[in-house]
Amino acid sequence: MQMNTIARSPHIVDGSRSVHPKGRFPVAALAIVGILPLLPLLLAVVDSRPGFRLVMLSLAVYAGMLAIALAVWVRSLRERLVRISTTGPLRLTPDSRVRAVLWLVPIIGLIPAAMTVVVQTSGLPTMGGRLLEWGPYVLGIVSLVGLAREVVALRRPLGLIIDERGLHGVRGSTPLEVSWDDVGAVAPVGPQGPKVMIEIAGRAPAMIDAHHLGSDPAAAAAIVAFFRDSPEHRPALADGIAAMRTITGELQA
Questions:
Q1: In this model, does residue 24 exceed pLDDT 90?
Q2: What is the rounded average pLDDT for all residues in the chain?
Q3: Other Cβ atoms within 10 Å of 131 Cβ, number
Q4: What is the mean pLDDT of residues 117-145?
Q5: Is 130 exposed, middle or buried (0-12, 13-18, 19+ CB in 10 A)?
Q6: Which residues pair with 160 in a beta bridge?
Q7: pLDDT for 207-236, tens place per residue?
Q8: Are 93 and 3 in contact (CB under 8 A)?
Q9: Backbone angles phi and psi of 211, in degrees to 5
Q10: What are the sequence ranges of the domains in the chain?
């Protein structure tokens, strides 16, 4: 089901804490991954064997999808950004593009294995060697595992639902089903990526990747901490937009 979302940058945090690993935008990582598709593409162009070309082109498509996915993943967060659902209780929700690439990467990862089957069953000329013969199948198995994980994750609510009862979610990250009485300290953590740490009575702290919240982890932590400490404002959580107006007004006052 399609979920409508809005993204805002309310002044509930000052934005001084970077949302990127080690506080730096990963330009080098994006550049390296962006170059990867060129290698199999070049091999497909210079080699005349149709079977080899078919496999290399499928690997180029997959590598291109990885580059797109990384760019979407990195750019889905920015300082002070809060992304919420426009209907129902307050829900911090991931960017729709992030949700899409989490499915597209493993789906496209099946293509090289399918092309290898076509090449082998059709007897098309290709390059020998175990890497080329079995590598696409290994990638296909990994992709099937990734798809299975996404299917299993559908049982959990998308994003982090914050309502009068407590915290619920988080699909793709640490699952939560916690009442307000059990919520302890909440804080953004790092430096190996944007995460939110939530201490929970009777269990280990939950570490939630902020990409699955679609929000600056510092802002997400501030929102949870505000409603943890202000039970009189929790009725506003029944409407996510109203809840954000409440917390913005209170923290800016």
A1: no
A2: 89
A3: 10
A4: 88
A5: exposed
A6: 92
A7: 999 999 999 999 999 999 999 999 999 999
A8: yes
A9: -60, -30
A10: 18-153, 160-252
